[in-house]
Write a structure and sequence with these properties.
Residues 1-22 form the signal peptide. The protein is α+β, with helices and mostly antiparallel strands. It contains 17 helices and 41 strands. The strands form 11 sheets. The protein has a 6-stranded mixed β-sheet, with helices on both faces. Strands 29-33-31-32-30 form a 5-stranded antiparallel β-sheet. A 4-stranded antiparallel β-sheet has the order 1-10-11-12, with no helix packed on it. The protein binds 2-acetamido-2-deoxy-beta-D-glucopyranose (NAG) (4 copies). One 2-acetamido-2-deoxy-beta-D-glucopyranose is lined by residues 119-121.
Length: 835
C-alpha cells in the first residue's frame, strides 16, 4: 500500500473512532468529552477543553482554529475549573448546557443556567463569529436560548455587544483574566456606567475608574479618538446604540478574512489587535490607557492634561483657573485648579472661552438636553450661575447639549479627534481672547499688507535704480533682495505650520503604494534603512523609509515622537507625511524628484553655479535655525551631511532625517552618549571623541558642509598630494597663506562673487573651530551669510586637521600642528527640550 492510501485509512479510522472530530454542533445525544473539539463551519473558531500554565486546570473555551498561536477568546467555566481531564460538556434533558465530571453520579461544575424553556430538541453550536449558541430545533437567532456572546470574558469580538439592558438592568462587559495563565475573573473590567447624564464607557480596577472612554460623540467614544483613526477605520466600523431597550456598542469587520480582536488584558490595558499572517503574530495597533493623560482624573479639577507638556505631569489649569496650591506645590503632585480669585462669572459680562481638541469631561454629574445646538446650549448654561461649562455632542441620532455644574474632571487634550469645550470665564479672560483675536484677525493682515506694499515698492524702486545704474552697482540690490526674501519666507513658514497633519498609514496602503517594496522602487539606503518611492491612491508621490534599526521605544511612544516631529514644518525640511507601525516601523515623507546634494556637489558639479550654491547654503542654515531655535522642540540633528540634504525641483534644499536622533535616542537624552551616531568627516571633535553633543556639534557639521559646497570636494577625500590631511586642513592651510580662493571649485571658473565666497569660507572656518564655545550659532551663521553681520573674529585653528586624531590612533605623521581632542566643558545643551 502506498502512503496516500495509508493516510486515507488513517482518516477513515479517525472518523470511525471520533465521530465528532470535525462537526460544529453538540446535541442531546452527543456530549463533548475532554480531547474532542467542535469546529465552526467556516473553520474559523474551535471549541474544546484547554489548560493554561502549570495548574492542570481544564477549561472549556473558544479559540481561533487556524492560528499558530492558541488565542482563547472565550471561556465557559472561567471561575469553575475542572481539576482533571474527565470533564464532559453536554446538552442535558432539560435543554441546559452542562459541564460536569463523567461518571455516576455526574458532578455539575458549570451550566448555562437558564430558566427552562419547555420541551424540545436542544443543540449547541460554535459559529464562525466565535459565538457558542444553544438553540431549540433548527438554529436561528429566534430559536437561540443562550449564547456565549452574552457572557463575554476578556475579549470583545466583532459582532459581539457590550450592552446595558434597560429592561433587565443586565450589564454585559469585559472582565480581565487574573493572569495570562489564569482565566479566572480578574480585577479589571471594561463596561458602561449609565448612572450619569449620558452613558459612559470605563475601564475599572474593581470599582475605581482607571480610564474613562467617555460618552459617544457621534463618531466614537470621546476618550478614544485614535481608536477610529486608520488603520482601524480601514478594517472595522464601530457602532453605538441608545434606545428604549439598550445602550450598546459593537463593531464589524470590513476586511474579509482578517482576524481582529479587542482585549482587556490582565494588567488593565485594552488592546486592539490584528493577526499578521506574515509574522504569525498579533499586531497591537492601539492600546489604552495611553500615557498619564489617559488616567482617570489625573490632573484633578478644572485642569487639562496635555500629553506634549513635559512638566507638571502634563497638567495645566483651564483658562481662568489657577493651581490650587498657588503654583508652589512642594510635592510636585498636581492637585487640580480653582477659579482665579476675584473672577466674576455671574451676570458680570462673563462668557465662554473655547478649549478645542479635548475629551468630553466626566459627564456623570452633568445635565443633558437633547436637540439643543451650541447657541441654545450656551444660553442655557448662562442662565444658571453655577454652570461652569457646556458642550454639544451627538450622543444618539440627534445633537444634544451637556452642561456642567460641579468640578470639571478628566479633561485631556488630543492631537486629533477632540471636541470643543465652552468654558465659562469672566470678562477679563474674554478680553484677553478678544485682544488676541483682534491681533490675529485684524492687525496681522494689516501688517502683512503693509509689509507687502513696502516690499513691492522697494523692489520697484530698486529695479528703477538698477536700470539707472545698470552696470555700476550690482552688489547692492542683491544684498537687500536677499533679506526681503528671508523675511517673507519666515512668514510663510509660520503660516504653513498651522495645517500640520500626520497620518497613520496602514501597512496595506504602503505595500500597495510601493508595489510590495519592489526593488525597482528603491531609491537608496539611508542611515536608518532603505528608502522606497511610492504612489498613493490619489496619485501623490511619497518616499517610504523602512526603519531597519529598531528603537527601544514602545509603539505608543514611537507614535507620539512622530506626531511631535511631524509638527516641524519648514520649507527647508523634508515634510513627514505620516508613519506606519502596523507590521514594521516606517516613515512616510514627501517625495522629492531630485537626488541628494552630495550628487550635485561631488558628481554633477556643472549644474550648480555659485548663486545656486549660495542659496542652498542659506536654505540649509534656515532649516537648521528652525530645528535649533524656532520650532517647539529643540532638535539636534547629529547627522547633517550632503547626502541628508535633498533638493526639490527648483533646487531648494530640504534637510532630511531630522528627528531621527530623537526617535532612536531614548537612551541618549543626556548631554553625552555612548553610541555615537553620525558620519565620519562631519562629526565635531567633542562628539566623536567624547560623545558630547549640542547645537554646536551641528554647527560643526554645517561648517564642513559649507566648505564642501564651496570646494566641491568631500572633507574626507584625500589631500595627501597637497600635503594636507582633509578638506578642513586644506582650507586652513590656504587661509593661513592668505589664498583662500584657491579652494573654490574649479568648475565654477571665474563666475562667482569674490567677496561673498571669501565670506563663506570665513564662516565655514568659524563653524569648524575646535572649541565648541566659540563656534557661532546657526542664526549667527545665517546673518553672516546674508551679510547682515560681518564675521568679526578671525577663525581659530579648526579641529581634525591631523589625521592621527581622526582615525582614533591610526598614526600617520603629519606636519599640521595641534591635536584636536581637548575636552570642552561648556557644551551641556541637551538634545531635546520641550518648549
Ligand atoms: C476528577 O475529579 C473529580 C472531582 O475531584 C472526581 O470526582 C473524579 O473521580 C476525577 N476523575 C478522575 C478520572 O480522576
Ligand atoms: C427531536 O428530534 C428527533 C430526531 O431528530 C425526533 O425524532 C423527535 O421527534 C424530536 N422531538 C421533538 C419534541 O421535536
Ligand atoms: C457608576 O458611576 C458612579 C459615579 O461614579 C458610581 O457611584 C457607580 O458605582 C458606578 N456604577 C457602576 C456600575 O460602576
Ligand atoms: C454631530 O453631527 C453633526 C451633524 O449630524 C455633525 O456636523 C457634527 O460634526 C457632529 N459632531 C460630532 C462631534 O460628531
Amino acid at each position: 500500500m502506498d502512503a496516500g492510501n495509508n493516510l486515507l485509512l488513517y482518516f477513515l479510522l479517525l472518523l470511525v473512532i471520533r465521530p465528532c472530530f470535525c462537526i460544529d454542533s453538540l446535541t442531546q445525544s452527543q456530549p463533548l468529552k475532554d480531547g474532542d473539539f467542535l469546529i465552526s463551519q467556516g473553520e474559523v473558531f474551535q471549541l474544546g477543553f484547554f489548560s493554561r500554565g502549570k495548574s492542570g486546570n481544564r477549561y472549556v473555551g473558544v479559540w481561533y482554529y487556524k492560528l499558530s498561536e492558541k488565542t482563547v477568546v472565550w471561556v465557559a467555566n472561567r471561575d469553575h475549573p475542572l481539576t482533571n481531564t474527565s470533564g464532559v460538556l453536554s446538552v442535558d434533558t432539560t435543554g441546559q448546557l452542562a459541564l460536569s465530571y463523567s461518571g455516576t453520579p455526574q458532578v455539575l461544575i458549570w451550566s448555562s443556567d437558564i430558566l427552562s424553556t419547555g420541551g424540545g430538541n436542544y443543540s449547541a453550536k460554535i459559529l464562525d463569529t466565535g459565538n457558542f449558541v444553544l438553540f431549540k430545533d433548527q438554529y436561528s437567532e429566534k430559536n437561540t436560548v443562550w449564547q456565549g456572546f452574552d457572557h463575554p470574558t476578556d475579549t470583545f469580538l466583532p459582532y459581539m455587544k457590550l450592552q446595558w439592558n434597560k429592561r433587565t438592568r443586565e450589564n454585559k462587559f469585559l472582565t480581565s483574566w487574573k493572569s495570562p495563565e489564569n482565566p479566572a475573573s480578574g480585577q479589571y473590567s471594561f463596561r458602561f456606567n449609565v448612572t450619569g447624564s449620558v452613558p459612559q464607557l470605563y475601564i475599572y480596577d474593581g470599582v475605581t475608574p482607571v480610564l474613562r472612554a467617555g460618552p459617544w460623540n457621534g463618531i466614537t467614544f470621546s476618550g478614544l479618538p485614535e481608536y477610529t483613526v486608520s488603520p482601524v477605520n480601514d478594517v472595522t466600523n464601530l457602532f453605538y446604540i441608545d434606545n428604549n431597550e439598550e445602550v450598546a456598542t459593537y463593531y464589524i469587520v470590513n476586511t474579509p478574512g482578517l482576524f481582529t480582536r479587542f482585549v482587556l488584558n490582565d494588567e488593565g490595558f485594552t488592546e486592539r489587535l490584528n493577526w499578521n499572517p506574515e509574522s504569525q503574530k498579533w499586531d497591537a495597533f492601539w492600546t489604552g490607557p495611553d500615557g498619564q493623560c489617559d488616567k482617570y482624573a489625573h490632573c484633578g479639577a478644572f485642569s487639562n492634561c496635555n500629553p506634549v507638556k513635559l512638566s507638571d505631569q502634563g497638567c495645566e489649569c483651564l483658562p481662568g483657573y489657577q493651581d490650587r496650591s498657588g503654583g508652589k506645590s512642594p510635592t510636585n503632585i498636581f492637585g487640580g485648579c480653582v477659579r482665579k480669585p476675584g473672577a466674576l462669572v455671574c451676570n458680570n459680562g462673563e462668557g465662554f472661552k473655547e478649549v478645542p481638541g479635548v475629551k468630553v469631561p466626566d459627564a456623570t454629574k452633568a445635565r443633558w438636553q437633547s436637540d439643543l445646538g451650541i447657541k441654545a446650549c450656551k444660553e442655557f448654561c448662562l442662565k444658571d450661575c453655577s454652570c461652569s461649562a457646556c458642550m454639544t455632542v451627538n450622543i444618539t441620532s440627534g445633537k444634544g447639549c451637556l452642561t456642567w455644574y460641579a468640578d470639571l474632571i478628566d479633561v485631556r487634550e488630543f492631537s486629533q479627534g477632540g471636541q470643543v469645550l465652552y468654558l465659562r470665564v469672566d470678562s477679563s479672560e474674554l478680553a484677553k481672547d478678544r485682544t488676541k483675536r483682534v491681533l490675529l484677525k485684524v492687525l496681522l493682515p494689516v501688517l502683512v499688507t503693509i509689509i507687502l506694499i513696502i516690499v513691492l515698492i522697494s523692489r520697484l524702486l530698486l529695479k528703477k535704480k538698477k536700470i539707472r545704474a545698470k552696470n555700476k552697482n550690482r552688489e547692492l540690490s542683491h544684498g537687500s533682495e536677499n533679506s526681503d526674501i528671508s523675511f517673507m519666507e519666515r512668514y510663510q513658514d509660520a503660516l504653513a505650520a498651522n495645517d500640520t497633519e500626520v497620518h497613520c498609514f496602514s501597512a496595506n496602503t504602503i505595500i500597495a503604494a510601493t508595489e510590495n517594496f519592489s526593488i525597482s522602487k528603491k531609491l537608496g539606503e539611508g542611515g536608518f534603512g532603505p528608502v522606497y518611492k511610492g504612489q498613493l491612491h490619489g496619485g501623490q508621490d511619497i518616499a517610504v523609509k523602512r526603519l531597519s534599526i529598531t528603537s527601544t521605544q514602545g509603539i505608543e511612544e514611537f507614535r507620539n515622537e512622530i506626531i511631535l516631529i511631524a509638527k516641524l514644518q519648514h520649507r527647508n525640511l523634508v515634510r513627514l507625511l505620516g508613519y506606519c507601525i502596523q507590521q514594521e516601523k516606517m516613515l512616510i515623507y514627501e517625495y522629492l524628484p531630485n537626488r541628494g546634494l552630495d550628487h550635485f556637489i561631488f558628481a554633477k558639479k556643472s549644474v550648480l553655479n555659485w548663486r545656486t550654491r549660495f542659496d542652498i547654503a542659506t536654505g540649509i542654515a534656515r532649516g537648521m535655525i528652525y530645528l535649533h531655535h524656532d520650532s517647539r522642540l529643540r532638535i539636534i540633528h547629529r547627522d547633517l551631511k550632503a547626502s541628508n540634504v535633498l533638493l526639490d525641483a527648483s533646487m531648494n534644499p530640504k534637510i532630511s532625517d531630522f528627528g531621527m536622533a530623537r526617535i532612536f535616542g531614548s537612551d541618549q537624552n543626556e548631554e553625552t552618549t555612548k553610541r555615537v551616531v553620525g558620519t565620519y568627516g562631519y562629526m565635531s571633535p567633542e562628539y566623536a571623541m567624547e560623545g558630547l553633543f549640542s547645537i554646536k556639534s551641528d554647527v560643526f557639521s554645517y561648517g564642513v558642509l559649507l566648505l564642501e559646497i564651496i570646494s566641491g570636494r568631500k572633507n574626507t577625500s584625500s589631500f595627501d598630494a597637497e600635503n594636507s590631511i582633509n578638506l578642513i586642513g586644506h582650507v586652513w592651510d590656504r587661509w593661513l597663506q592668505g589664498k583662500p580662493l584657491e579652494i573654490v571649485d574649479a568648475s565654477l571658473g571665474e563666475s562667482y562673487d569674490v567677496s561673498e565666497v571669501s565670506r563663506c569660507i570665513h564662516i565655514g572656518l568659524l563653524c569648524v573651530q575646535e572649541s565648541a564655545a566659540i563656534r557661532p550659532t546657526m542664526s549667527e551663521v545665517a546673518s553672516m551669510l546674508c551679510n547682515e553681520r560681518t564675521p568679526s573674529s578671525a577663525p581659530e585653528q579648526p579641529a581634525f586637521i591631523n589625521r592621527a586624531t581622526v582615525n582614533f590612533g591610526s598614526v600617520k605623521s603629519c606636519s599640521s600642528s595641534g591635536i584636536a581632542a581637548t575636552k570642552t566643558n561648556s557644551v551641556t545643551v541637551s538634545i531635546v527640550e520641550g518648549r
